[in-house]
Amino acid sequence: MIKKKKKKSYTEVYALGQYISMSAHKARRVIDQIRGRSYEEALMILELMPYRGCYPIFKLVYSAAANASHNKGFKETNLVISKAEVNQGNTVKKLKPRARGRSYPIKRSTCHITIVLEDISFYQQYEEYLMYLKKPGCSNENRNLTCYDTYTYTYSSGGLWDKK
């Protein structure tokens, strides 16, 4: 089996928190609120939400932003949470003593949280470049492309579907 190498993205930075002592279901409730939002907006939402799972997620978002500014030199105002996912981790099983010499199982669930921040300033510069190419004075050979619909373009007019 050949593994495909994932294409390296130069605009993404991530932080990974493993074995966080919280159920994945409770963490997803918080993560769904911040997915797709800007970095600053996500921090405000996490500070004001009343759930216990907000604090470790807040620390992860903050850590991902610190990675972005330190390792790649991105500005925090241009960061957006592009991907946030929660996976179930190991379950720690213990036994608690109860009355009459019996035992009661305790299951402590853990989760793995991944926060991916993306720098949107790159895409804004790319859009500005595309707008520059569309200016009338700009010379671009690939500007006038002809597109054909493969279903309505018939053989008699030199179409793609030639039945012989």
Automatic annotation (TrEMBL):
GO cellular component terms given for this protein: chloroplast; large ribosomal subunit
Xref: Pfam families: Ribosomal_L22
GO annotation, biological process: translation
Domain of life: Eukaryota
Record's keyword terms, sorted: Chloroplast, Plastid, Ribonucleoprotein, Ribosomal protein, RNA-binding, rRNA-binding
Gene Ontology MF annotations: rRNA binding; structural constituent of ribosome
Cellular compartments annotated: Plastid, Chloroplast
Family annotation (InterPro entries): Ribosomal_uL22, Ribosomal_uL22_bac/chlpt-type, Ribosomal_uL22_bac/org-type, Ribosomal_uL22_CS, Ribosomal_uL22_sf
Recorded family membership: Belongs to the universal ribosomal protein uL22 family.
Role according to the record: The globular domain of the protein is located near the polypeptide exit tunnel on the outside of the subunit, while an extended beta-hairpin is found that lines the wall of the exit tunnel in the center of the 70S ribosome.
Subunit structure: Part of the 50S ribosomal subunit.
NCBIfam families membership: rplV_bact (TIGR01044)
Protein name, entry field: Large ribosomal subunit protein uL22c
Organism: Heliophila juncea
